[in-house]
User: Fold this.
Amino acid sequence: MNRSLQLDPQGRLRHLLTLEGLPRALLLELLDTAESMRHVALRGNKKLPVLRGRTVLNLFFEASTRTRTTFQLAAERLSADVINLDVAASSTSKGESLLDTLATLEAMHCDMFVVRHPDSGAAHFIAEHSAPQVAVLNAGDGRHAHPTQALLDAYTIRRHKPDFASLRVAIVGDVLHSRVARSELLAFGILGVGEIRVIGPKTLVPDVLEDFGVRIYTDMDAGLQDVDVVIMLRLQRERMRGALLPSESEYFRRYGLSAQRLTRAKPDCIVMHPGPMNRGVEIASEVADGPQSVILEQVSNGLAIRMAVMSHILGPAREDAA
Amino acid sequence: MNRMLIRGARVVFPHLGLDRCADVLFEAGQVLALDPEAGRCQDAEVVDGRGHWLIPGLTDLAVRVREPGQSHKADIRSEATAALLNGITRIVCPPDTAPPVDSTAVVELILRRAREARGAQLHLVGALTRGLGEEALSEMGALRAAGCVGVGLVGRSLNNNYVLRRALQYAASLDLTVYLQPCDAPLAAGGVAHEGKVSTLQGLPGIPELAETLALARDLMLIEDTGVRAHLGRLSCARSVAMVIEAKRRGLRVSCDVAMPNVFLNENDVLPFRAAARLDPPLRTAADRDALREGLRSGAIDCLCSDHQPHDPDAGLAPFPAVEPGASGLDSFLGLGLKLIEEGVLDLPTWLERAALAPRRVLGLPMPGLEAGAAPDFVLFDPDAQAPLLRERMHSRGRNTPFANWMLSGSVRLAAIADRIYLRS
Amino acid sequence: MLEELLPRWVDATRRSLAERNISAPRLIGVHSGGVWLAEHLRQALGLSEAIGTLDISFYRDDFTRVGIHPTVRPSRIPWDVEGRHLVLVDDVLYTGRTIRAALNEIFDYGRPASVLLSVLISRNGRELPIEAAAVGLHVELGPDEQIKLRGPEPLHLERIRRP
Assistant:
């Protein structure tokens, strides 16, 4: 069902709502395109004409200046016009239904909605109820998915360790509430990562993940053994309903990534974090700023990936020669 | 008063040992004769019953009518009428109207509206506690005197065990049946789907099976302790069925029901984010659905109900977690029952037991009869007529159903209850 | 056929450069065929600077045909374009849209002093007013015919009739 909603008959993305159901070749194509985009950012004229004349609407129902700015910059670098709608502050908070908001937006004749919403499934809902020519790019819906984050993480990993099949990747922290983790698990599965581990307390890591081919560890030291990539998730305080953890200090003691703990992983293990970081809660400052950290690179890779995704969805139609 | 003659139908009343072709002569308010002599039938309006079945009217133990308080979704007139048109002659309304059924004024309002509607017979369950809250008992005696068939709770259980125990004791001393729906509120809080594979994959907050089984275990112990007669509604998992079997074996006076959606669907029907599958209790695993079917077959589960929860269209037009839970069930209750027979889950007498007879036993009502003088309470329908369930053709004002466009059998020709007769022209 | 064609094309390019008094041009090839050819040309002309490569994917219009290998390769121009004399190299000049896109892309890197278009084959079918200064071979093709450069090993020409 995700495949038919997201892909057109030629196998091209018309929406990006979730990585589920997408073929490996498509993911690799997006990573390759991001590589080109990264080079564009290094030259004098950082713009490409791919989306000239198109309008991208940032529809953020959840406050997030960071992510919104990245999507805005990505669209502008592709020469698109960008409109920002922080709905939290506008009519929806006055009780206007999501459907009514969408109906009024139709009048703006946008080509793409970039959507962030606190409810899982919101991006699907918007894709189903928007005008047919509007493409929807999911910038994060509830706990469900954050596909561009997972893509930029996969791209970052590939730049350092190109052979996915040989890798041991560990995701640490609040997987239960994390849309980033869900999308990463899908991405790594599709790309054929050798071994995927999830590390955290039972309150934050659902058992049923084992059914998806993932090894669960409640002991951080054991879980980090010989790992090639560590991805630290933010402890999302605002999503917890109490009684999931006793305290931040205990969390750091048991699951925080200290320099000491990192030595259990392989010596060339890279350290990643989707940001923003809670220093001293899930990750020690010296690790976040240390030589194995690629956290800052993730941010610039995020721009390249978002440019790649937008140009894939909205760029000129592909036509292969005979 | 017009006499009517149903001629040539297959009459199936298992509790009377009846399953044969027969004629029935009746008028509004009373049955005149089964197998009447030709002479008595002369001025009667004839209804050709050939190829049709005549069964006891279906009785649905959980039907929200949304009045008072939510008339933008539905009302007593529309739902009582819809029930009758769908072959359901008796509906039981839970106490969670707004205001709840905890005062005689509300009871009288609802029962009066139901009389005026002249549709299905409406039975009312009063509130077990005042305001359906955690602190005080309701005036159960007064509620019964005003016309309630029992008292109970619905949706979520009481958290306070002490108050629940006292309430059950009090109900027992009045010989009242208590209607409970086991679901622990804190464990279920925030959940919108069964806690399992699908909810984890889709990032939907889960309602664990434990919310039901833990509350059920507590309820069963209190039922045993207080000796109250209780009916447990909307069980949704295999574990619950096993617990009820064990309780019955211990001699507890309990009965239970399951809702139609849980008998046909499972958590996969939520994928990817189908608003129509947003239900409470949620759709659980395929194994749970199979256990509910087996329970219906064996009799561990006494009754089938629709768990009718009609909604206005806007209630379903939102991202999944924001959709109001519940399905409109009156328009599919008969058809899905026939589907269970077609799929070999139940035979005809067993289905009638679960959907028509056992619910009456739970309510303490006499079984419907066909002897002279008996009050009419039956339905005539064509079991072979098939049609897709189309939202725009539904009789209920609520069109929210996960069974939209399913091909269902059963076309109701006539329904009679007390002095009301519905005849499709 | 290619063994004879390549030297003829290199000579044509050499002559065009001489006519314009350009002695130290920089070469840019359009993926993929133009890149192989630009490298060949670099060696044949004895130039030391590396060639630039262009992937025009992001500058195409809807009517541009993608080459045989539709995978994306990053554009790379390892020197400053500003004020330089460039030779833009491609395998087949057909509608002219690829070259239009390539010129747009070059100008996003900077403003060259001049751009000399050198193509191995020029065929009929222009849709834009673009012509090459140096051509290895002119061909006339039927409406359902195509000519392509295949490679990199061995480099060879293929004439195709589309069914």
